[in-house]
Amino acid sequence: MLNTWGFCCQNLKGILDCKPPRPCSCLDRSDLVLVVGRMSSKWSGTALSPRSYRLASDTDMPKVAGIVNEKLLSDYLNHIFPSTSKPQQPAAAFRKPLTFLDLGDHLDTLLAEGEPAEESKDVDGRLGPPTVVLDHTSGFEGLLLVDDDLLGVIGHSNFSSIRATTCVFKGKWSYEVLISSQGLMQIGWCTLNCRFNQEEGVGDTADSYAYDGNRVRKWNITTTNYGKSWAAGDIVTCLIDLDEGTISFCLNGQSLGTAFNSIKIGPGLAYFPAISLSFKESVAFNFGSRPLRYPVEGYQPLQDPPSADLLKAQRLLGYIKNIFTTKIDTQEGKLVEKDSAAWELHGEPTVLVTLAHIFNHFAPLMCKVYLVEGVLMRFLLSILEGGGSVDEHPLIQQLLDLMWLLMEDYEVNECLKQLMMSLLRAYRFSPIIPDLGFQIHYLRLTTAILRHEKSRKYLLSNVLFDVLRSAVFFYIKTPLQVKEAGLEELIPTTWWPCHFDKEGRDEREAREESPEERLRRRAYERGCQRLKKRIEVVEELQVQILKLLLNNKDKGTDEASRYIFLNKFRKFLQENASNRGNPTVLCPPEYMVCFLHRLIAAVRFYWEESKRKSSGVLGSEEAYVPPQLFYNGKVDYFDLQRLGGLLSHLKKTLKDDLASKANIIIDPSEIQAMSMDDLDEDEENGTVQRPAGATAMGGALARPSWLSSPTLGRANRFLSTAAVSLMSPRRPLGTPERMKVRTLSVEQRTEEDIEGSHGNDGLLQGRPPEESDQPIAEKSLLEIMDGIVMMYNLSVHQQLGKMVVVSDDVHEYAVALKDTEEKIARCPKQREDILEELVKSQKVFIEKLNHLSRRLAWINATIYSKDKMMDIYWLLRVCIRSIEHMDRTGSLFAFTPEFYLNVAMNSYSALKNYFSPSNSMDELPGYEETLTQLAALLAKHFADPRIVGTDIKDSLMQALASYVCYHQSLRAVERIPEEQRVAMMKNLLAPYEQRPWAQTNWILVRLWRGCGFGYRYTRLPHLLKIKPEDANLPSLQKPCPSILLQKHMADLLSRDKEMAASFLNSVLNQLNWAFSEFIGMIQEIQQAAERPERNFVDTRQLKVCATCFDLSVSLLRVLEMTVTLVPEIFLDWTRPSAELLLRRLAQLLNQVLNRVTAERNLFDRVVNLRLPGLESVDHYPILVAVTGILVRILVDCEMQGVARAAAVLLSDPCFQLHSIQHLLGESELLSSTVCHSLSLSLPDTDYISPEEQQKVERMLSFLTNESKEAAASAAPTSEEDLCPICYAHPISAVFKPCSHKSCKACINQHLMNNKECFFCKATITGVDDYSKPPAS
Fold it and tell me: Which of the chain's termini has less CB crowding within 10 Å, N or C?
């Protein structure tokens, strides 16, 4: 653009040297600096100092460089620089001509007019340094993090206090405090004599006074109600009138009234600004270093504003505005007024030299934050006030061009830095109004500044990520106070949904809406739509900012913006991935959520743009991250866990596969440097015994706190009174701790390293043979997409789950309101007292629901809208495709970062649980196909040997367990290829020993639920009335059994006899353990309950006890499932382990029945205690599970099998017929109380069908007859003939070669784990049947 200005550098040099101009086609920026006489070093070859330039004669100017004639120039300069001290200007004919020779002195004179006299440092009524900051040397108590500007502070202990460096003793003074977090704080004034500690702070001593907006009180030893509640982003103005002896406060410019009267004043008393704040609470002070947001008439800030500089800056800006509104018409020889918005610099030397004189004074002033915020930012905002798109306001671009041209680089850099800091502060903490006008205003200016290429690249390289927390620009904060956000006007009618389950469908049968409800709902939806449209305006501006930062077409002489952003973005991810234990360094999750959505929109925009330009490129709907990024070392994953373990380990073990499949050779020295021994040593020496707060002491907290002041600066210092009065910033205490310092390789990467060039694939180096060579997209977009996946894993999913609490609150209050209304309807009219209380409760619930429904509308628009749901769905599909592509690489799959699997599982969970019911998953495009792909992923990888991490394997198992719990996702599992289904079932049927088996067992139970005996309940019958909210628990969803997967299980167990035996033995072993543990624990609980001192039972013990009970029930259900699907495993005694399995099953069933059904037993007593935490422990679930197994083997099987089962059951020493009779309440031995509780368990429940009850009656009748016959025919067995191991069964087996004897059950169970004889320890080589020879 500089080359189009119509004149050249040599021409300008001719003005200076009185030489004829030489033709030139360029305009060099350094020569223009010569023109204005500033920073002569910028033009090599000259030695002109400031103010050394001279024009030979005014008559030469038109000939030299197009300078206008003397009269027109004089008129122009007098118009641009009007005098302020002379009210009546002389006529142009009598006015002394003004030329560039005189302009410097003339400008100096104008700027000196009205300049206030230099004030003394000591102001009457104030003591202390003129620059007021927080006293970080001695004026604090506790642990504090203080920004390097000494204006922002974070509490780092229980109740920390700090005061300012300046005090006041006379006059009227004010200062402002920006509330960064809305927690417990006391803000006000104190004297030097006040002594604070970790319990008492400002307002808790005699000479200190404070306002607490968290508890809405004022403090001065005692406390009373005062003021209003504050929220993050509010500004508290603290006022003290030492003439009248009063202290008052304002909130966001509104007076809260006088808080304290007749405060102590007089000799020796001076008041300091002071604050006390609790842990992690943060504020920022403004004593006058920046313009006060809400100045109060009659009160002056503690720090004097730079009045002289402010006056100069305003005048100089006025001169610049005059230039923008004035045009020189050289043909007519006159000045023409014009609109400043249309002003452009076309290289007019007169204008340019005039501007150079102005910037000679203006540039140094623009390095001061007060002037940048109070003058420049206000002027730039005024340019955009007219509305329209940012493109329609080129004046800002012109002004930035002038700044880069006429100011030194360091001046422009400092000015832009301060300008962006002011914009960020203003955007973050501006109050929310219905049209979001403040936020839109500041974002528009930010967009306009970033549209300027040179400014954008400087800010990207040095400010946005290095100095500022730029993610704040992409955040839309949620209003905590609905009234102040104007939501009552925007959404006048409220409505709330009721009775929705976690899948977003109605729990109960749909009922017709009343006309009134329908009108309310539609009015509420219209209000939500109005709100959504206003929020979309802000979101679109945020996306525009990211589009500017992701521009890769602005290469010019230096790197394109996108590649600068990419390197900074990767470093941002590293900070958040490597500092999980230090929340002050982490980007807050609520910021991450908004940043992620805007980044997805910008990436997909450029992705589609790339597709339009190149026909072979995939669309963003088919996007995935190629496998190469995970193992070629081009992208740094900051030592995050891979599926196969540590990266150093994978490089050692898979180096041959990398060489053969991807042509990547690992340097042996690199392997040695990254060895696990080195990492372990670093861990032991660098991280052990590092206290949580120590990260701030030794310089490890060089990065700043997200909770700190609105400067959002990236440096701070740590103050502590725990050991010393001050800990110097970045100075370690004692011996420095060893820390593993890692420099990101991405800092030095260039566009060629990322995108590649001739023969270089850039990020995609090392393509495996399984991967297509079809271009996907620009490689830089692939890395940004990879970073988006990492962002979701770091904190976005956590925040999505957190914000859904508001929806849950709406549901709870709606249920409470409905219950209250029903009570009002039932309340007798004569009980007016009860009715009055119920009406009060109704009003409270309605008021709370009105507030929450409006807040929910805001959250749904900003977090859970349809567009946001599509973003998360897109992310889910990206992860699934990326994992599928990586899976095809075979062993290289181990290089995949764990977070890809985590994001795939968590994003699906978010879609299912967080975005419903406002948005239905069924409406997502290709949803069923995606469900099937995710089902195949879970089914294949939950037992993948390439995955070694315990946590990720457990997460996969839990995800699969949740997946089969819902009808829609279970059908997706049934749609995956048969080979994968069979492999999944085979992995589920692996023996339970030496692996986490509980989740596997829950999966099998859920596949069976709905088919078992009395197993059709959605809630446990005894909890039906006690805890109705349990309906939403995944384990208590409506039964959805899978007949197809049951068939696969039956086929596997039927064909593979060895697998069936090992699986069932492991199930029986775990059942024996779980039920034994349960009985032992309820014995301890009963003993504790019977003690006279009434000790409380440990809640953890109660939880473990309930878990053991639930495990026992689930294991019994798996046994029921197996007996039903494959009864021959127990009843076909041609199978080697059938008899042993049947005997073990009978033994365990008898033990369970006896423990649960015995008269006045331990189980009954603990159940009747109704202890919190043991709600699931009851007779019904365990008795129906046992009954289902007995009915199957004693009623539903063939006669031969039934006979075997009955014989084994009756021969067990633990068998008691009255335990079976108990199931129908027919035992005469039971007391009426116990009989009533147990008889309700089976026949009187809705979940037992008449057919099932008849089967129980038949089973009882059959067992009664069989037991009588067995008792009549059984011959007494002598003690010598009984098994010497169990003394329950006759001897039936003899061992080889030692000839010792026992029953078959004992020896078969023994040989499962041991091959030595019980008695002589000889190795058993065989077992033969034994029958006692007849007596001689």
Answer: C
